[in-house]
Amino acid sequence: MRRKDRQRDEVFAYEVAKKCQYATLATTNPDGSPYAVPVSPVLVENSVYFHCAPEGKKLENIAHNPNVCLVCVGDVKTIPEQYTTAYESAIIFGKAAAVEDRDEKIEALKKLCEKYTPEHLHLFDNAIERSLHRTAVYKISIDQITGKQKKIYS
Q1: Interval 63-97: pLDDT, tens
Q2: Which of 1, 94, 108, 129 could form a cystine bridge with 49, CB 3.0-4.6 A?
Q3: How far is Cα 14 from Cα 16, in angstroms, rounded to an integer?
């Protein structure tokens, strides 16, 4: 990391990853070019889960090369009068794979719902019954995580 003064420890990075509302997932196209797409992640221990349609470019890329990078950003505040932005971020490097185990898939979806729609958990079982067959869940096993923060002092 170039700006060592902004580097934070792994505990901080995991907290950013845990609370971020969305993240950008970077994969590699078969021709070597980059591809990035937003996802709604949930951190569970040393893994990150996200859900998606069961087909698409990011899934094709992961099948070709499971190495991914996930960028989480949080607590962003622009400071116009100083021409700068306060922020915190976490960058995760890991390998992504489809979750094939039914129980793990349901548990990951439940964790996603607990994070994003906790007030509607009473509808979870019905949603699983209706949509599990057409929902893919992917797991990123974290190999490395780094954290960064820019604070603004008045």
Answers
A1: 999 999 999 998 888 888 888 888 899 999 999 99
A2: 108
A3: 5
Q: Provide the domain count of the chain.
A: 1
Tokens of 43: 């951190």
Which domain, by its residues, includes 100?
Answer: 4-146
The pTM score is 0.90
**β-strands 84-98, 23-28 pairing:** unpaired
| DSSP class per residue in 20-78 | -S-EEEEEE-TTS-EEEEEE--EEETTEEEEEE-S-SHHHHHHHH--EEEEEEEEEEEE
Closest CA to 96 of 140, 38, 57: 140
Identify whether 59 is part of a domain: yes
How far apart (Å, rounded) are the C-alpha atoms in residues 85 and 98? Answer: 36
Tell me which residue of 136, 139, 108, 109 sits closest to 124, measured CA to CA: 109
